[in-house]
Amino acid sequence: GAVVSQHPSRVICKSGTSVKIECRSLDFQATTMFWYRQFPKKSLMLMATSNEGSKATYEQGVEKDKFLINHASLTLSTLTVTSAHPEDSSFYICSARDQGARTEAFFGQGTRLTVV
Amino acid sequence: GENVEQHPSTLSVQEGDSAVIKCTYSDSASNYFPWYKQELGKGPQLIIDIRSNVGEKKDQRIAVTLNKTAKHFSLHITETQPEDSAVYFCAASMGGSYIPTFGRGTSLIVHP
After folding, report:
1. What is the pLDDT of residue A100?
2. Interface mutation target, options A44, A92, A94, chain B, most CBs of B under 10 Å
3. pLDDT tens digits along B31-72
4. Residue A27: pLDDT above 80?
5. Residue predicted with more confidence, A59 or A103
6. Is A60 in CB contact (< 8 Å) with chain B?
7. What DSSP state is assigned to residue B93?
8. Quick one: which of A89, A93, A109 has its CA closest to B39?
9. Residues linked to residue A52 through DSSP beta bridges, in sequence order
10. Nearest to residue A20, comparing CAs of A77, A58, A64?
């Protein structure tokens, strides 16, 4: 399958600072990328859908000013958690869908964010 | 919107036994059903998928069946091995938009 690289895999930051997470499609062009949040022993919660060159579509209840998403190219999307608080600590996962007619989306390795 | 139910939440088997995880979906328009395996601290990995025009698909020790009428689909793992231990998620989506709805996950534990 296609490869999606997510970086960093782990990050610890202080309350009030911002953290940027990158999601790259390594061997395909991704017109659409998805950002998920996963709590311990829980399923994936879709936060937002981003399309290259346009604004992200956020799910209900997700603060767009707190979780900034940029999808500037067909191979890169970034999620920035602004003014992080301890309750933002979580596992964040991106997935990317091939530009072609394929239906599958492939997931990154995930980023464990800890806000202290 | 779509609602996906997944059972059981935890499944414990002995090495060599078979494991079956079942999912139901609510929206008859859904036509793509992937299964993901997530190991601890990692992102989900697609292991098998099935489209609505097929009733069964097999890939070595894993197989997926789909009953469109009943709106349920299942994952079957035969000859389980300890390395099969992980959390498995089913999902359902419709059309080319691919915004999948995930089940709650099944924690599979294979005892050696």
Report:
1. 65
2. A44
3. 999 999 999 989 999 999 998 888 999 999 999 999 999 999
4. yes
5. A59
6. no
7. B
8. A109
9. none
10. A77
Q: Tokens 């498995």 appear where?
A: B88
Q: Does B30 touch chain A (CB under 8 A)?
A: no
**Under an 8 A CB cutoff, do A103 and B32 touch?**
yes
Cβ distance of B96 and A103 shorter than 8 Å: yes
- The confidence score (pLDDT) of residue A99 equals 67
Q: Is the pLDDT of residue B100 over 70?
A: yes
Contacts of B112 (CB under 8 A, 6+ apart): B15, B82
pLDDT at A10 over 60: yes
Residue with tokens 């890169």: A76
What pLDDT does B34 receive? 93
The dihedral of CA B10, B42, B66, B1: what is its sign?
A: positive
Q: Which residues in A lie closer than 8 A to residue B105 (C-beta atoms)?
A: 41-43
Q: Which residues of B touch A58 (CB under 8 A)?
A: none
Residues of A in contact with B86 (CB under 8 A): none
Report CB contact under 8 Å: A43, B89: yes
Per-residue pLDDT reduced to its tens digit, A47-80: 999 988 888 999 999 999 999 999 888 899 999 9
Q: Are B12 and B109 in contact (CB under 8 A)?
A: yes
Nearest to A44 among B93, B102, B107 (CB): B102
3-state secondary structure A19-46: EEEEEEECCCCEEEEEEEEECCCCCEEE
Distance CA B111, CA B57 (A): 26
